[in-house]
Sequence to fold (216 residues):
Amino acid sequence: MAIIEMEQLIKNGLDRALELMTLAAYNSIKFGNRNTVKIIALGEEELDTVSQFCFSLGDMSPLAARDGRALQEFMKEPLGMLIIGDKRKSDFNYNCGACGYSSCAELNKAEEVEALTSNGPMCLFKAINLHMASNAAAAMAWHLGLHCRVFSTYGFGAKAMEIIEDVDTAVSVVVSAAQEDPFFDRHKYWTRDYWDEIFKKEFPTFLRGFIGAIEE
Fold:
């Protein structure tokens, strides 16, 4: 039996982890037993494309730019990324009104609003299904002992660059086998004062100030 070195074992393990995370996401509890989410894993070239796109949003969203720069650092150690997306229209016929329309049919006929983060208007239960899937993938990563974080920025970056196609919204689930957790150091690139300034500017709202939702 040929010896397999540790680096190759880790790479193989990450690939297998992404497969198991996809399985968990695919099999997560979903409203109406409808599994319409789309899941892909990104290679190194696609990771770099998402990183560069997010970094290019510096004038619109310093947070997206920070995540784009951070991804370049993440990629220096073993890393994997799933992109999970879905369409915005309802096929539930719940007619719940949560989307702002009185019926699913009315929602589905409404004019689409194209935005950086997500196209709308969107069915609430589609959004819940999407995030149950991402949570299931993240839970599997945790069970496997991997560093993990769900990012919206990389998700909408993959959507904007058409790396994931035929979806209206997307999130990413990123896993790392780095020697220490790379995902929660908010001050690696920013001073505390600058972080406080950006946080106050971008987090009070989830509209343009947050991540440039709609072009004006």
Observations:
- The mean pLDDT is 89.
- The longest strand covers residues 79-86.
- Helices lie at 6-26, 44-55, 62-74, 104-109, 124-143, 152-160, 192-202, 208-211.
- Residues 21-87+127-204 form a domain with the NADH Oxidase fold (CATH 3.40.109.10).
